[in-house]
User: Fold this.
Amino acid sequence: MLPNRLNVNGKEYSIRTNKDDILKIIEAFNDPELEDKEKVYICLYILYRDFNMIPQKDYEEAFKAAVGFIDCGIKNNNKRPTPSTMDWEQDAPLLYPAINKVAGFETRKVRYMHWWTFMGYYMTIEDGLFSTVLRIRSKKASHKKLEKWEQEFYNSNKDLCVIKKRLSAEEQAAKDKLIAILDGKSP
Assistant:
């Protein structure tokens, strides 16, 4: 049975389980303009239907439960952070066709799809452009040598293979200023 409630310190709370809601949370997690505490708040506010009923002292546990749900209950025992090999926003043009192929229908047209169902489709993607890009990113992140055809693909498709770092407005302004200085223009 697919979960629609989360236990937070012994109390059950109803949650939003639609893939679109979870993708909004992930978008907030990746927003460089938001502080971590804002990301936590957005996650809790979107996910928990009765967010206002959760005592503030339980926010940390509620967030842990939320992340567990978003991760489909799969625990990562690796304490070290690993480089990201996927970006939901950047990869959407590659990702949805791959998921749709597995699902057998256009998943973006469905009004409701449980997050775990959507992720089940995602986790069973096998062949295609998206899996090629992921494989190359994974090899590069773990400093493994690419096969000749992979290196050729990478060289021809860096715009697909390299995850673009999102900069906050402040970071972008600093970068633009530095580029102007390096180009001999006054900032």
About this structure: Residues 169-182 form the longest helix (14 residues). The first strand starts at residue 5 and ends at 8. The beta strands are 5-8, 11-14. DSSP finds nine helices and two strands in the chain.
